[in-house]
């Protein structure tokens, strides 16, 4: 799939009953991927198979329209028909597929109960909260019994109170129910709770693919490290650690990577100590940074780094979580030059 200055070149699969999370920064190709899978976009070249059925094959001139693909979609917005009740919204899909009125209504009642919305059957969308509408939208997406369910950031538009309940519902209905699904999200928590496997896109290509916990615990890209709440430094594996592009050795514990291999060093922001002047002694990694931002985060304060003048560019985006008292002791503001210090035992070095 190509658009001006962008090409989506991916090969992915989801096994029957598997939930595959697709992560990536804005512009990585996530929405384009969903458009191709749903049939709303025609790729320039490609093959899409849903179950045993080929729904897109550019070489053979096959393009099954969206409503005949056996694909359901739950988007950020519920997009319910405003003139229909919750029950009729859910029954719409089966009715459009030729199912009789009584059977479609029974399917709607079953799904209303399944998504904990049995009391909402006679309400129209304007009479429901955002969380209630999203429950009904999930039931509507499942009503035609799709072979593939597409989840396009389904929790992004919900308020903070409705999100945990909807996330738990999705886990029960989708993951535990063995519904094959592709989930697009920016949330590491959503991926951990809902997905069996994660694919990370960058620039229209797959840069990471693996079990959800493995990918988030051992990120190999800056984006994945950021959403997993980890710091990441790129480089090449060297004796005793990782050699950065500018030649600095970041000491750490290597894990299945050989000297000379492209690698990343990963560590949590909570492992970073911050100093106003360069500390001496002890086998620690000492990284010069410029303070870019101060971000309160509950009981800690996150200090976000940028590259100092003439310093290494790869420190840009690194974070340190420190106490409010430590920030007060430092007495600094954005723009100040600092030192981030990390013990070698806190740094894990993985192949990339």
Question: Could you characterize what this model shows?
Answer:
The chain is α+β, with helices and mostly antiparallel strands and 352 residues long. The protein folds into 2 domains: 2-217, P-loop containing nucleotide triphosphate hydrolases (Rossmann fold); 230-352, RNA polymerase II/Efflux pump adaptor protein, barrel-sandwich hybrid domain (OB fold (Dihydrolipoamide Acetyltransferase, E2P), Beta Barrel). It contains 9 helices and 22 strands. The strands form 5 sheets. It has a 6-stranded mixed sheet. It has a 6-stranded mixed sheet with strand order 14-13-12-16-22-15. Strands 17-21-18-19-20 form a 5-stranded antiparallel sheet. Helix 2 packs across helix 3 (101-114), helix 3 packs across helix 4 and helix 4 packs parallel to helix 5. The longest helix is centred in the first third of the chain and has 14 residues, at 101-114. It is elongated. The model has no long low-confidence stretch (mean pLDDT 91).
Quick summary:
This protein is an alpha+beta fold and 352 residues long.
Topology:
Elements: E1 2-3, E2 6-7, E3 19-23, H1 30-38, E4 47-50, E5 53-57, E6 62-63, E7 71-74, H2 86-96, H3 101-114, H4 130-142, E8 148-152, H5 163-175, E9 181-184, H6 188-194, E10 197-202, E11 205-211, H7 212-217, H8 222-227, E12 231-238, E13 241-243, E14 249-251, E15 253-255, E16 262-267, E17 272-275, E18 284-297, E19 300-306, E20 319-322, H9 324-330, E21 337-343, E22 348-351
Parallel strand pairs: 3-9, 3-10, 7-8, 8-9, 15-22
Antiparallel strand pairs: 1-2, 4-5, 5-6, 10-11, 12-13, 12-16, 13-14, 16-22, 17-21, 18-19, 18-21, 19-20
Helix pairs in contact: 2-3, 2-4, 3-4, 4-5
Pfam families: ABC_tran (PF00005), TOBE (PF03459)
InterPro entries: AAA+_ATPase, ABC_SmlMolc_Importer, ABC_transporter-like_ATP-bd, ABC_transporter-like_CS, Mo/tungstate-bd_C_term_dom, Mop_domain, P-loop_NTPase, Transp-assoc_OB_typ1
Keywords: ATP-binding, Molybdenum, Nucleotide-binding, Transport
């Amino acid at each position: 799939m190509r658009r001006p200055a962008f090409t989506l070149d991916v090969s992915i699969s989801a096994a029957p009953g598997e939930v595959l999370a697709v992560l990536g920064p804005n512009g990585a190709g996530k929405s384009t991927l969903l458009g191709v899978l749903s049939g709303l976009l025609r790729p320039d070249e490609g093959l899409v198979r849903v179950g045993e059925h080929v729904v897109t094959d550019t070489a053979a001139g096959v393009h099954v329209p969206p409503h005949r693909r056996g694909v359901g979609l739950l988007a950020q917005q519920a997009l319910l028909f405003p003139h229909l009740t919750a029950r009729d919204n859910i029954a719409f899909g089966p009715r459009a597929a030729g199912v009789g009125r009584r059977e479609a209504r029974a399917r709607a009642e079953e799904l209303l109960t399944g998504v904990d919305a049995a009391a909402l059957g006679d309400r129209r969308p304007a009479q429901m909260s955002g969380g209630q509408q999203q429950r009904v939208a999930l039931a509507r997406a499942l009503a035609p019994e799709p072979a593939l369910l597409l989840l396009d950031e389904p929790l992004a538009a919900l308020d903070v109170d409705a999100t945990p309940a909807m996330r738990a519902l999705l886990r029960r209905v989708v993951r535990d129910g063995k519904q094959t699904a592709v989930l697009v999200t920016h949330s590491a928590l959503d991926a951990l709770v809902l997905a069996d496997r994660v694919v990370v896109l960058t620039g229209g290509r797959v840069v990471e693919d693996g079990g959800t916990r493995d990918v988030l615990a051992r990120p190999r890209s800056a984006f994945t490290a950021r959403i997993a709440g980890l710091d990441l430094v790129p480089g090449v594996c060297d004796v005793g650690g990782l050699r950065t592009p500018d030649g600095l050795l970041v000491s750490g514990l290597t894990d299945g990577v050989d000297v000379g291999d492209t690698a990343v060093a990963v560590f949590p922001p909570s492992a970073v100590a911050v100093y106003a002047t360069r500390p001496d002694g002890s086998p620690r990694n000492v990284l010069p940074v410029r303070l870019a931002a101060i971000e309160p985060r509950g009981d800690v304060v996150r200090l976000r780094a940028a590259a100092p003048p003439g310093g290494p560019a790869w420190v840009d985006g690194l974070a340190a979580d420190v106490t409010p008292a430590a920030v007060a002791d430092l007495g600094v503001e954005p723009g100040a030059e600092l030192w981030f210090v990390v013990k070698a035992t806190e740094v894990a070095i993985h192949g990339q």
